[in-house]
Design brief:
By secondary structure, the chain is mainly beta. The chain has two helices and ten strands. The strands form three sheets. A four-stranded antiparallel beta sheet has the order 3-5-8-7. A four-stranded mixed beta sheet has the order 4-10-9-6, with no helix packed on it. A two-stranded antiparallel ribbon has the order 1-2.
Length: about 190
């Protein structure tokens, strides 16, 4: 409708609130906005699409990056502003003893992002909106690991990931690494 325009209120730490305004009139005074402190929960549900390794996969290569792609674009700082070994990290990888593994945490919105072609280009071209973890060292062979993405990772809309975690917000992938060898015939196949 050409008779309306949306005015949007936005402030740091407040939910973005649009309000339609009738523009048939030339003057508007005393426009009130109802604002909500905190993040917005809007937009489409954000669900995991593809993961490598697959949940409960065995034989995952010890020297490969891990990823989970999502159905909607993510807020990059909520993914990449994390220290993988910190207890308050929203993205981390744990071994079977509960030790967090050091590595790089990246967001690949698509596989042609300037500056991340090498990292994001390692994934199939169909993978978008992926949370990627690249261990700084080879993983321990023959061990169970858990790749965790908590509700601290959110979509551009502020909506947390709806996954398989206990409360439904966030996602976990459990997998086992291959034995003390790197022969692809024994260490699984790519999950794509």
């Amino acid at each position: 409708d050409n008779n309306f325009m949306h005015i949007i209120f936005y402030a740091s730490e407040y939910c973005e609130i649009p309000r339609p305004l009738d523009v048939k009139s030339s003057s508007h005074f005393g426009i009130n906005f109802e604002v909500q402190e905190g993040s917005c929960i809007a937009g489409e549900e954000v669900v995991p699409q593809e993961a490598y390794p697959h949940n409960n996969m065995s034989g995952f290569p010890v020297d490969m990056p891990l990823y989970v792609s999502m159905s909607e674009p993510l807020d990059r700082p909520s993914v990449e502003n994390n220290d993988a070994t910190s207890d308050d990290s929203s993205v981390y990888l744990m071994d079977e003893n509960g030790t967090r593994i050091d590595g790089g945490i990246f967001y690949c919105q698509n596989n042609s992002l300037i500056g991340q072609e090498v990292l994001c280009g390692t994934m199939p071209s169909s993978i978008n909106n992926a949370v990627v973890f690249w261990p700084y060292e080879d993983l321990d062979p023959d061990w169970r690991h858990e790749f965790v993405i908590t509700s601290g990772v959110v979509a551009e809309t502020g909506r947390p990931i709806s996954g398989n975690s206990d409360d439904g917000n966030g996602h976990k992938v459990t997998f086992w690494t291959c034995g003390d060898y790197k022969d692809p015939a024994y260490c699984g196949t790519p999950g794509y």
